[in-house]
Design goal:
The chain is mainly alpha-helical. The protein has 9 helices and no strands. It has one domain (4-210). It starts with 16 loop residues before the first helix and ends with a helix.
């Protein structure tokens, strides 16, 4: 694998997965996963690229020296705990959150996207949202604000957090052992970001198309 310092930052340097891991280690990964899953500020964090990079660095024994199974377990716990916090936050402050004005860190449009996503997929949205940036940050809040049955939310939260946390990290671990991936890691990370944004872009295009097709009165 190329030296970690040669990995291209995706976005600002402080959001570069490699920089975050080399600076804050495992604790930083868990904190970021929790924040992206349950705190409204988490929508700016590189969750998918971070987990993929973590798996890759575990395979290369760079910065992270924990076994893969332990990484997957801790990341899954952090993801589930983050969504639990988001659910409880939404259940307590949901109504006021929907009346909150836009700011630099909070956009009602993001909350509306998650709400529409939740209405469309129901309980399954808790699992599906894990793989959609921005939506995964707001969906547990919407679930709490909608008073989704707690046991139902907990079940799907555990499934989603485990599949996402273990799946993306393990993918990075095994792909990181392939020569092509090791030699082109910067493009792989960019690809992950692009693929993650595709569902959002698709939904935006669909919404715009429906708006154009809506009859005017």
């Amino acid at each position: 694998m190329p030296e970690a310092q040669t990995i291209l930052a995706v976005g600002p340097s402080f959001l570069d997965p490699n920089w975050l891991i080399s600076t804050f280690g495992l604790v930083g990964i868990l904190a970021i996963v929790f924040a992206e899953s349950g705190l409204l500020i988490g929508l700016f964090l590189p969750g998918d690229a971070l987990l993929f990079t973590a798996g890759l660095l575990v395979a290369d024994d760079t910065y992270l020296h924990q076994p893969l199974w332990l990484m997957c377990l801790l990341i899954s716990i952090a993801a589930v705990a983050g969504d639990q916090f988001g659910y409880l936050f939404g259940r307590r402050f949901g109504p006021s959150l929907f009346r909150r004005p836009d700011s630099r860190l909070f956009k009602q449009d993001n909350l509306t996207k998650a709400q529409n996503f939740f209405r469309k997929y129901g309980a399954r949205s808790i699992v599906l949202a894990r793989f959609v940036p921005v939506v995964r940050t707001f969906t547990p809040v919407v679930a709490g604000a909608s008073h989704m049955h707690y046991r139902t939310f907990l079940l799907y939260n555990v499934i989603g957090g485990t599949v996402w946390g273990c799946g993306v990290t393990t993918l990075g671990y095994f792909l990181g052992q392939i020569a092509f991936v090791r030699n082109n890691i910067e493009f792989i990370l960019i690809g992950i970001v692009v693929v993650s944004v595709i569902p959002i872009a698709f939904e935006l295009l669909r919404a715009r198309r429906r708006g154009h097709q809506a009859p005017t009165r």
